[in-house]
Write a structure and sequence with these properties.
There is one protein chain. By secondary structure, the chain is mostly beta strands. Helix content is 0%, strand content 72%.
Length: 82
């Protein structure tokens, strides 16, 4: 499992364990799975999806930055639109 945190300047949107997460990267969407290589990527406006034990969740963001390191993923979103 991956520890995912989604935050905006105003609030924490989600924090918990997920099986996978997909992000709207500046050069196209990409998926992060367990043991993914470390990376930092700029994000464009688009859908962020992730799968928890309860099922798939989707948020639309207005850009941001994601950092992946050691099965921890932190998404700093400018704004969540949904």
């Amino acid at each position: 499992m991956i520890q995912l945190t989604i935050i905006t300047p105003d609030q924490k949107i989600f924090e918990g364990e997920v099986e996978e997460a997909t992000f709207p990267g500046a050069n196209g969407s990409f998926q992060v799975l367990k043991n993914h290589a470390a990376l930092v990527s700029a994000l464009t406006k688009g859908a962020v999806s992730y799968t928890t034990k309860e099922g798939k969740k989707i948020h639309v963001i207005d850009g941001g930055v994601v950092e992946v390191n050691d099965n921890k993923v932190v998404l700093l979103a400018e704004k969540v639109l949904d």
